[in-house]
Amino acid sequence: MPKQAHYERPAKSSTGPVTSVQSNVVKRFQAARARIQPRMLAAARHFTGLVTRAKQRPPKVPWDYNVKGFGALHTDNTRDFSIEIDDPEKPEKITVSFYRHGSADLSALPTSSQAYAELMSSLPGYGLKFTGSTAGNISKIAVKPYVPVEFRLVADIPGAAIRIFLRNVEDLGVFHYAFNPEDVDVKFMAAIDALLLHQPGDFYRIADKALGDGPTEL
């Protein structure tokens, strides 16, 4: 699992008072927390509500995942919405997850073919399940869509930013963004809702405000 962003508070000097440099670092962390924590708390409440509603009425929205040169995996339902919050009172990591699924899709490929080898090399990391079958004397593979979806919001105190991690949300892939805390507002969270539920939304317009790509791990 990706690691949560964290920081270490500067230790007090054992030989004397806290230096001005240490004091300034602590003040910056405190200022960053003051900007970030209210936004994270609001997000925790918002996405808890989203997951509660999704569990009551799971969305049945068709979604095609395009797999490099092999066609589309067609999904027609979502299941197992859940949310994890590291600290309900002072959240620094919020994770919403679920999976999309459908019947077997894509043309069956001979297991001895180069196309099969290429397809297998593209699947790791996305959690796609596949099943084997036999046609005549040729063993073939059929890909069954089971696509785990994840959205993660992480407080980056040292960077004075809020980072988001998206896996398999829009298409097969992983994305990271970093935002100023002030940009993680009501409109931002509504855009994430739309993105997760495959509805028209303004996420990509909002993503233009991103400070940049996030780290390779969150």
The general outline is elongated
What order do the helices and strands follow?
HEEEEEHEEEEEHH
- The radius of gyration over CA amounts to 21 Å
The tally of structural domains comes to 1
Instruction: State which percent range the strand residues make up.
Output: 25-35%
Say how many strands there are.
10
The parts where pLDDT drops under 50 for at least 5 residues are none
Major sheet: size, sense and barrel closure?
A: 5 strands, antiparallel
Structural class: alpha+beta
- In which range does the helix fraction lie? 25-40%
Structure annotation, total helices: 4
Cα(first) to Cα(last) distance is 9 Å
Overall average residue pLDDT: 80
Order of neighbouring strands in the sheet with most strands: 3-4-8-9-10
Please give a structural write-up.
28% of the residues lie in helices and 33% in strands. The radius of gyration is 21 Å and the shape is elongated. A hairpin with a 7-residue loop joins β3 and β4. The strands form three sheets. A five-stranded antiparallel sheet has the order 3-4-8-9-10, with helices on one face. Strands 5-7-6 form a three-stranded antiparallel sheet, with no helix packed on it. The protein has four helices and ten strands. The chain has one domain (21-207). By secondary structure, the protein is of the alpha+beta class. The mean pLDDT is 80.
Write the layout of secondary structure elements.
Elements: H1 20-56, E1 63-67, E2 71-75, E3 77-85, E4 93-101, E5 105-110, H2 114-122, E6 129-135, E7 138-144, E8 146-156, E9 161-167, E10 174-179, H3 186-196, H4 203-207
Antiparallel strand pairs: 1-2, 3-4, 4-8, 5-7, 6-7, 8-9, 9-10
